[in-house]
Design brief:
single chain, 73% helix
Length: 67
Amino acid sequence: FAWSRIPEILEQQYKEQIERAAKHSLHHQQDQTGESSPNDKSSSLNSSADSRHQLEIIENDPAYNRA
């Protein structure tokens, strides 16, 4: 097992978690309005940008780099 692969694996797991969270919050927004708005496409784009930002925060957080 190559230690060098750990960051890759962790990154994949965080991406999946963040995507799930982004989808969940998107559904939650739709539930609150009771309908899916025409802005869904742009809001999902925004949430993926937020996810990338969140991933950068995670990658730069020393607490997550204890592998």
